[in-house]
Amino acid sequence: MKKIIKYPLTFIVLLAIGMTSCKKEFQKLNKNPNTLEVANDPSLVGNIEVNSFFNSAYNAWTLGNGMSQYATFSQSYYNTLARYIPASNQPYWQVLYTDARDANQVITDSKANGNTAMQAVGLILRSYSFAQLTDLWGDIPFKNALQGQNGNFAASYDGQQTVYTDPALGVLPSLRAADSLLKSSVTAITGDLIYAGDITKWRKFCNALRLRYLLRASSKLSSAAAEMQKIVSDGTIFQSASESAELTLPSSVPYAFPSITERSGDYSIKYLNTLLYNFFVNTGDQQRLTLLFAKNVTNQNATGFNFSYYGGMPIVSDANTAQVNSASGFNSSIFLSSPSSPVLKARVITYQEVEFILAEASLKGLITTGSAATYYVNGITGAYADYGIDAVSTAAYLSNPSVVYNPANALNQIITQKWVGNFDVGFEGWIEYRRTGIPAFDAASANLNGGKISTRFLYPPDEQTINAVNYKAELQVQGGTESTSYKAWWEK
Fold first, then answer.
1. Where does this protein have coiled-coil stretches (predicted)?
2. 292 and 279 in contact (C-beta within 8 Å)?
3. pLDDT band for position 33 (50/70/90)?
């Protein structure tokens, strides 16, 4: 027989009080006062900046420098993507959408609390993410993207022209709006790791990106020239290399410059590409060659300087001994042990790039302010300043007959110098090659894309599963089959 125990009413009341108290204590203990339950805007801004700038350096070092033909990866285990095999680059796609989502949150919050400066920062950072996405993948989920919090994980694709020009969300209208907000803003930018909240420098960063994308789309946008001229006339643009959009990365993981923590085996298979080596030789560019690269194995004990002590490697499947011995690897004293070196700064857009943009714009009659020759000289000066190369060496380089501005060869000079200056800046060398065809890339050696330089990444596998309906609809736009030869809107 079960024995029933009867407790006094006072005991039951005390037990209930005790349990309620314990529950409250558990609630207090389970809440970490040192962790943000909802990310605030300053923390979002800093996180987006680190993601954007680190990934610009990381993607360049691990893939972009190969696809831009600055470097050759000597072993087939590492170099299939750099040989233009169709690939998705899904990790970067995910980073960019995460950054765009977080920037969108900054925009929403800043509109609500009236902080126009932070709203502008959000617009700039979101625009950069979307521009990277469309320049690297083509048509993308855009107008209906960033709706995951509403349960929408399957957004339709929009064309690149829409991504660039949509009045509400487009890259160019958003950057234009950001500049206008910053121009009249009296609020503060917080959480900023790039310019420490300096509104004028953020305007210059914004206008640098505007000039990049306006030039890129200038053959398709009748309004591009007028807008570029307005930006130049306003004068709020980078004035020196010290204003470039760049970030000094820490010396420790996970955000160290990628060469610093790379395994020796991964580091040692990266060599100076023949195309870049020939540029150094043909223009007498001793300074950048010796700063970035080491003497080859055959001449590693040679004294003094001679271009023959260095060498380039063509795009190869697997380099043979002779190719390895004659080609220059990266300068280990810089890339493995000098985290504070200006060479290892993570860059998104620089003063030198802006000057080369203006040089091309001037040459083509898109702007009337200044001269192409002056902008060209400024670009080279800025490129040398990026690496801390002294003024005397810069002047000597500018006096080289192959470097002196030549009106008959000006476009090739401008774009090639811009290509060199964008070394270690994401995929910019590859993107600009697709726009201009300059310099002439090697499309034959060990190419895995039918002898063609690919023009885009494939869509990530997640798009084919999570967003299958819209992915299949996009394939019909491309002719029924996804192709790495499907060109950008601004390429056509």
1. none
2. no
3. low
Intra-chain end-to-end CA distance of the chain, in Å: 90
Tokens (6 digits) for 58:
């990381």
Quick one: tokens of 448? 């895995």
Pick the CATH number of 42-237+454-492 from 1.25.40.390, 3.90.226.10, 3.40.910.10, 1.10.287.180: 1.25.40.390
Is 139:456 a contact under the CB 8 Å cutoff? no
Cβ neighbours, 10 Å, residue 456: 22
- pLDDT tens readout for residues 198-226: 999 999 999 999 999 999 999 999 999 99
Q: Which two tokens stand for residue 465?
A: 């599963």
Say if residue 339 is preceded by a cis peptide, omega within 30 of 0: no
Identity of the residue numbered 329: G
What would the mean pLDDT of 314-333 be, rounded to a whole number? 97
Question: Would you state the pLDDT for residue 30?
Answer: 55
CB neighbour burial string for 107-137, b if at least 16 within 10 angstroms, e if fewer: bebbeeeebbbbbbbbbbbbbbbbbbbbbbb
The burial of 429, by beta-carbon neighbours within 10 Å (0-12 exposed, 13-18 middle, 19 or more buried), is given as buried
- CA pair distance 261, 240, nearest whole angstrom: 31
pLDDT beyond 60 at 16:
no
In this prediction, residue 265 carries a pLDDT of 86
* Largest CA-CA distance found in the chain, in angstroms, rounded: 110
Quote the pLDDT of residue 345.
97
Distance CA 199, CA 157 (A): 34
- b/e burial code for range 14-34 (CB count within 10 A of at least 16 → b): eeeeeeeeeeeeeeeeeeeee
pLDDT of 379: 98
Percent of the chain with pLDDT over 70: 92
416 Cβ contact list (under 8 Å, min separation 6): 279, 438, 439
pLDDT tens for each residue of 382-414: 999 999 999 999 999 999 999 999 999 999 999
Angle, nearest 10°, between helix axes 90-113 and 116-137?
Answer: 160
Q: By three-state DSSP, how is residue 145 classified?
A: coil
The CA distance from 286 to 392, in Å, is 13
Query: Given pLDDT bands bounded at 50, 70 and 90, which one contains residue 455?
Result: very high
